[in-house]
Design a protein that fits this description.
With about 325 residues, the chain is of the alpha/beta class. Helix content is about 40%, strand content about 15%. It has 13 helices and ten strands. It has a five-stranded parallel sheet, with helices on both faces. A five-stranded parallel sheet has the order 7-8-6-9-10, with helices on both faces.
Length: about 325
Amino acid sequence: MEKGLQKTGTGMILGKFMPPHLGHQYLVDFARNYVEHLTVLVCSIQSEPIPGYLRYCWMREMFPDVEVVHVTDENPQEPKEHPDFWQIWYDTIRRVLPTGPDYVFASEDYGWKLAEILGGTYVPVDHSRTTVNISGTKVRQNPIAHWNYIPPCVRPYFVRRICIFGPESTGKSTLAQNLASHYNTVCVSEYARGLLDFKGGWCDFEDIPKIARGQIASEDALARQANRLLFCDTDLITTTIWSDVLFGECPQWIHDEANQRQYDLYLLLDVDVPWVDDRQRFLPHRREEFRDRCIQSLESRGRRFAVIRGSWEERFKLSVAAVDGILHYQVSRVF
């Protein structure tokens, strides 16, 4: 068997990685196979839509054997923005890399000039974008359409989160599972149910923080496995409602976390289906009151929701129609 090519020298890649995608994966893997030591500069400014530190963390996770550096200098982004554009960037890079690099890798025309001012050799990589036909702009504009180009660690940022919400015994768990199956993705189960099974269904106030933390952990874990959509059987708003109903209070940090966590759509299930008892259902005669609490909680927070009612078949059809609308809706809060 022939020995592989001996890698030598140092290399550098500079970019925004907004967000990292498989084109960046190819670029970094190309450079890793070209040089012995590679440095990747993740460059960000405050005004950009995706936080720079988040992009830096993504790149570190994707390339643990590469030196990844976060550069936060508020430098001009185009040569036309400042007469000393190239000198400004030279000073920034030299602060991070006092010597070298031997090679500069890029898929953009700026690579030629950047290599020249740094005294290195430019190695163009897929300028035509025919090897991996994707860009950060395309991903930001329509992440759902370009999902297969988004690395797993980045996907939770773009996944559409759908919360199945409402009173007891309205078919939330079954609907969440059926929708996940329909869209070939995953479903976050209600963490409280599994936790309280060990207590015969009984809930104490000290269980509320455990339920909240478990729901958060489960959702954040499964977001990496989701295929464009993540269906969540309940959320922390539900936890706050139940805590207030059962105990007259709820820890403030759960309220704060519930306000912070965002979902693209809530499917609010109405109470026009028969009550089915089990060990973890408490309020058979207060479902209307609980539904109204749910509506008030969503409206007060400005959450987008659709009321789902009718037979089980009708509920599924209405839910699919509402979710299909989300798949074609560009979420302005991110882009």
